[in-house]
Write a sequence for this structure.
């Protein structure tokens, strides 16, 4: 008797296929769920790490300040940096410099103040604010002297500030001066004519767009703008003369206020500075207190860390949270 092979029925085949697909679907769903769990735990632990780092920095910053204060002696020389462009929102802004000055003048242990300058200048408004505040604080604290020490560069608005100090020192190769005012721009009128581009400007004042680089200059507006610069220049000169007094050799050297810049050695002969030296030598030999304490407004480690993280951290967090852009779900 022979056994006959019988082909599986269509219904049986479909039932088997259905079971296989269900099993495969369960397996895939389980894998997806496991990935989601892993991602959630990963996000949790990464966020926990960031919270820990931020908390540690927030706690560590005041400890650093306490340790720094604890190492200070019975008296010292206060140092305030004036570095880079003098402008609002910059490290050498008037608010930062003035805040440092007030703190130094109010500290009874400060024997003298050094403005450590390395700046090409900047805003006449910011420089004038610092100049006025130095003179005001000097009048209130007559026993505390202010010394400006120029390292590489003390020009324009930076020299404006320096001239308010009791004395100015610089290295023999420092660049000092540039007592002048500048405002620069470009004119694109000819280029627009060649390109066939028409400029359309709508204003409610006759001279509202007089600084527009895409419009030709008008003689009366050029004259007006020059008058504004000349007025600012006169203010600059008057402040320098008030601060330096008879030490300036401007009568023998009328080019002193022409915007030229001199070496420290030349500046000494012109009366722009009082001597050659650096921060350490001024603190040691002039003020008589060689210990230096930095009163410059500083960003906290927490702030510096946050800025360095910046957009990259936000991007990483977004990725961890699953916001990587379009994805298959």
């Amino acid at each position: 008797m022979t056994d006959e092979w019988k082909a599986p029925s269509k219904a049986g085949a479909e039932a088997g296929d259905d079971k296989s697909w269900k099993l495969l679907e369960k397996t895939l769903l389980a894998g997806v769920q496991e990935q989601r769990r892993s991602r959630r735990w990963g996000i949790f632990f990464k966020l926990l790490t960031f919270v820990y780092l931020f908390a540690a920095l927030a706690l560590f910053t005041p400890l650093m300040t306490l340790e720094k204060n604890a190492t200070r002696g019975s008296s010292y020389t206060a140092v305030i940096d004036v570095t880079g462009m003098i402008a609002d929102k910059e490290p050498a802004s008037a608010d930062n410099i003035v805040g440092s000055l007030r703190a130094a003048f109010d500290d009874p242990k400060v024997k003298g103040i050094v403005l450590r300058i390395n700046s090409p200048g900047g805003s006449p408004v910011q420089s004038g604010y610092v100049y006025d505040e130095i003179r005001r604080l000097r009048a209130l604290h007559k026993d505390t002297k202010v010394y400006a020490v120029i390292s590489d560069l003390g020009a324009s608005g930076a020299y404006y500030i320096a001239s308010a100090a009791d004395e100015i020192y610089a290295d023999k190769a420092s660049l000092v001066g540039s007592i002048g005012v500048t405002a620069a721009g470009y004119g694109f009128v000819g280029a627009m004519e060649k390109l066939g581009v028409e400029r359309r400007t709508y204003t409610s004042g006759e001279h509202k767009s007089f600084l527009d680089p895409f419009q030709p200059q008008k003689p009366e507006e050029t004259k007006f703008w020059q008058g504004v610069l000349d007025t600012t220049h006169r203010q600059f000169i008057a402040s320098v003369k008030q601060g330096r007094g008879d030490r300036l050799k401007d009568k023998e050297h009328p080019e002193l206020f022409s915007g030229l810049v001199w070496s420290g050695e030349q500046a000494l002969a012109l009366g722009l500075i009082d001597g050659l030296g650096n921060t350490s030598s001024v603190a040691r030999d002039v003020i008589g207190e060689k210990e230096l304490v930095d009163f410059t407004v500083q960003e906290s480690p927490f702030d510096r860390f946050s800025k360095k993280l910046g957009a990259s951290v936000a991007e990483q967090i977004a990725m961890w949270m699953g916001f990587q852009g379009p994805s298959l779900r």
About this structure: The beta strands are 76-83, 110-119, 145-155, 167-170, 175-177, 261-263, 275-276, 292-294. The chain has two domains: 21-64+304-320, 75-290.
